[in-house]
Each structure stands twice: as structure tokens, then as C-alpha cells.
Amino acid sequence: MADTSLLTLDSSLKQHDSKVSSGGIVRAYSHDTGSGPVLCLVHGYPQSAYMWRHVVPLLKEKHTLYIPELPGYGLSSLPPKSDKRTVGNLIIEGLRSVFVDRKVIWIGHDRGGRIGHRIVVDNKVEHNIIAAMFLDIVPTTEQWKAFANPAASVAYFHWPLLASPAAVQTIKQIGGYKWTKANFVRSQGSNSKGVSKFQENDAVEHYSRIFDKDETIEGSCADYAAGAFEDVEEQKKDQKEGRKVELPLMAVYSASNLGRMHDVDAVWPEWVSGKSELRCVGIPDGYGHYLPEECPEKVAELIEEWVGKYGTSQ
Predict the structure, then answer these.
(1) 170 pairs with which residues across the strands?
(2) Which residues contact 72 (CB under 8 A, 6 or more apart)?
(3) Average of pLDDT values for 148-176?
(4) Hey, how many other C-beta atoms are within 10 angstroms of the C-beta on 58?
(5) How open is the CA angle 309-63-22, to the nearest 5 degrees?
(6) Homologous superfamily of domain range 6-310
(7) Which of 106, 181, 225, 263 gives the lowest tally of CB atoms within 10 Å of its CB?
(8) Phi and psi of 83, rounded to 5°?
């Protein structure tokens, strides 16, 4: 199933393999309504753009979509560096090759949210990002702080493992396919309807096959290693020098997953300037980490609300 993609499920989407400044390509799928901001939907670990398969049909008739495959995650090229700024800039390059001057709303889940956090704080004029939505994350340095709690260390043990020099060899010996399948069993929610929705379209098989590739194992581990070093140092500098999110931000999270380990509503205000709206939304009822797949209707509803409020920003 590794060759299955969003395009397989929805032939109205267009696939783009955009050549970028690194010399590689960023693969993405798009749907253009011809107007309005571009919603950049960015996936996380251990997944692909396939994770938006339930959300796309709920949005595409009214909104322009750009849905990239993360560089280094098996379908776009490996990036020259794996820090969030480098990867984020490559995604924006790919987007701009398709939508030259349109405004952008960044909607990122998991690693896609962390990349978005870096790019939004950088706030380059040419990126033309007018609002953001991050799904089921707190800032990277806050996540590392949580490891002082033994329960958090156990729940998120893959963070230090994937960032370690032994990660690639260890996962290859386990087998990327087996490793990925085990990760989904561990992190799925308790809501049976959500679990069933997540598993539709042979999603677990699709992701597990992609993460059985050496390149995907190496690229995703490099992502986590950057998240333990370069990305953390950049965020420490941001906080010290007062650089914060200055765009409207909605932080959506699983109340039973991230909300169990963090006071999300208290954490994010420390990272947002206060010049723009911050809204934190906890999703109840046992829906887990993979919110766009477990409760796509709710996620799409929140996206519609945010775009309706800020999609016409000047």
C-alpha cells in the first residue's frame, strides 16, 4: 500500500513534484478554488499527507489546499539539514511554485505544527502567512521539560530514542514496518469510533510501508535529532530575545493525550505575543493524538471557523 496516496483516493487533486533550492523535490497535492488563502496542511510523525484524507473532502469545495509530504519522510527528498527552519522554508518554496502570491494559513499536526511554529515566529514577509493552527503540540522546549515527569518520559519515550545516535540502527533492526505499527497501537485514542476512522483506507499499512524504507527511517530520525538540538537552541533564543508568535493562532489538542501531560491552555500564552488572538481548544471524548483522522469533522469545523475569521486578513 506504500504507493497509495491522497491522489489515489481523490483524483480531483493535483500532484506536484516541485524542484526546490536544495536540489531535491517537494511532493505535494493541491486543490485550487481560485481565490482565498491557501490552507497548507502539514503532517507529522510517523505519517504522510495521507493523514488529511478525511479532512480534504470536507474543505476542498470552499478552500484552496496545499498538502505537502514532509522532506525526509520518504516521498519528498531528504533535506540538506533537518532543522525546522530549513524544512519549513523548503515547504514554502514548494507552495510558492504552485501558488505564487496567495496568502497562507499554516495548519500543522505534530511535526508539521513544530515546523509551522518555527516559520510563524520567523514571520518572513514573503511567506505571507496570515494565521496558523497547530494540532496536538506544545512548543518543543516545553515538551522536553515534561520529561522530568516519569509518566511523560514513558509516554513520549520515542523523543530521546529517535534523537539518539543509535536510533537508525535500532529501528532498522526492529524493522521500520513493525516499529511503525507498534507506535500506532500505543498512541491511538480510546474512542472506538475515532480508532475505526483512523484505520480506514488501510492507513496503518500505508504508513508502515513508507516507514520501512531506509531513507524514511534516516530522515525522520534526523528530524528528531534536530528537535533535540538546533530547534531547542533556536527556541531558547526566541524566548530570551522576545520573539513570539504574532499571528492569530489556534492550538487544538487531544484532552486525553496532550492535555493529560500538559496544561496546554497555560503553556501557549507564554509563546504568543498577545498582539493577536490565541485560542486553545481541547478535544474531549477520548479522541487521541491523530485528530485529523480520528475526528475529522471536528477538525474541519475548527479550520472553517479560523479561516472564516482570519482568511480575509490584509
Answers:
(1) none
(2) 78, 79, 82, 87, 215, 216, 218, 219, 220, 222, 223
(3) 96
(4) 16
(5) 105
(6) Alpha/Beta hydrolase fold, catalytic domain (3.40.50.1820)
(7) 263
(8) -65, 160
Mean pLDDT (whole number) for 23-39:
97
Q: Which residue has the cell 486525553?
A: 256
What is the pairing mode between strands 25-31 and 14-19? antiparallel
User: Using CA atoms, how far apart are residues 101 and 163, in angstroms rounded to an integer?
Assistant: 36
In the chain, what are the domain boundaries? 6-310
Half-sphere exposure of 55 (CA within 13 A, CB side): 32
Q: Tell me what the mean pLDDT of segment 302-313 comes to.
A: 92
Question: What pairing do the DSSP bridges indicate for beta strands 249-254 and 14-19?
Answer: unpaired
Give the contacts of 78 (CB within 8 A, at least 6 positions apart).
Answer: 24, 71, 72, 215, 218, 219
The pTM (predicted TM-score) of the whole model is 0.97
